[in-house]
Amino acid sequence: MSLLQVQNLNIDFSTTQGVVNVLRDVSFHLNEGEALGLVGESGSGKSVTSLAVFDLLASNAQVRSGQILFRGRNIFGLSEVEKVKIRGSEISMIFQDPMTSLNPCFNVEYQVGEVLRMHQGLEGSSLRDRVIELLAKVGIPDPQSRLKTYPHELSGGMSQRVMIAMAIACSPKILIADEPTTALDVTIQKQILSLLQKLRKETGMSLILVSHDLGVIAQNTDRLLVMYAGEIVEEGRSSDVIQRPLHPYTEGLLKCLPGAYKLEGRQFRLPTIPGIVPNLAERPQGCQLSPRCPYKFQACVNGAIVLGAVGDARHVRCIKEDLHGPA
Ligand SMILES: Nc1ncnc2c1ncn2[C@@H]1O[C@H](COP(=O)(O)OP(=O)(O)O)[C@@H](O)[C@H]1O
Ligand SMILES: [Mg+2]
């Protein structure tokens, strides 16, 4: 059995434009120890999906249908007490901007210690020792001297390390990292990503890594899901998807990677996918990508397009004829 199973999840938001269906029939699973990537442009529904797994959706959200099974139990059916127990100790999350996620009023020792006090009842010197151990584990040099440091005294990379220390404090089974490196510069980004990999290997936890950057996702995950307009449009082993993207949207994301356009030392202008993500309050008919898709034909807009199996562990929401042909 998978550690996590998201089944036919539909989420609506009440907005000034009325009720907007943001997530559409999202289904996926996460295996023990696996690194799963979630990739798509801004607004594609990655954060809503992550927050749903953590059951921390905004108050104007409504789960219209579907369920999320953690170890076989639907998290939407749990009591608040049970949810609080799971959050932080079984499923943990880190966010894009560590600066705003840390509380500016408390020092590092207090904030990392808070999680351990709450979930494990640690106190005094055993609490302090564990905090120091965690800070060392996430690569903070001379952790003892950092205990009394306040968030504003930390660099972006160090703040993210503190956030990761808090997230892994209770040895969660699943760590969800939503754009964990987007606010950091490239060198620090690489260090944080390799830290996440190291921790995953050491602890055996599963990772859901969320990014708008297909390069980051491909290099750091075993399997990935491509999201567009609140739907999963492609799923497959990360190496397979990179070698042979099947959905036109994935193909577009791949073309936008900088590596593809650095030829003989000359920089080319980075292409972007023409058009914009549809306004979810006024979704197009049929395939959601159709207004932007270079392969569009009549059948694409006639009706809904389902996520169909294509070969081993591969799914795609597209009816282009060559999808079922030889690789
Ligand atoms: N609280 C909310 N109320 C209304 N719409 C929301 C809310 N949160 C997210 N959305 C909408 O849901 C869509 C997906 O958002 P999000 O998951 O944050 O995208 P991503 O993380 O992929 O950039 C966007 O259109 C966004 O405007
Ligand atoms: Mg997001």
CATH class descriptor name of one domain: Alpha Beta
The CATH homologous superfamily of one domain is named: P-loop containing nucleotide triphosphate hydrolases
Portion of residues in beta strands equals 15-25%
Mass-distribution shape: globular
Could you state the order of secondary-structure elements as H and E?
Answer: EEEHEEHEHHHHHEHEHEEHHEEHEE
Helix count equals 12
Sheet with the most strands, sense and barrel status: 8 strands, mixed
Helix- and strand-based class? Answer: alpha/beta
Q: Tell me roughly what share of residues is in helical segments.
A: 25-40%
Total strands: the figure is: 14
Mean pLDDT: 92
Which hetero compounds are present in the coordinates?
adenosine-5'-diphosphate, magnesium ion
Rg calculated over all Cα atoms: 21 Å
Report a brief summary of the structure:
The chain is α/β, with parallel strands linked by helices and 327 residues long.
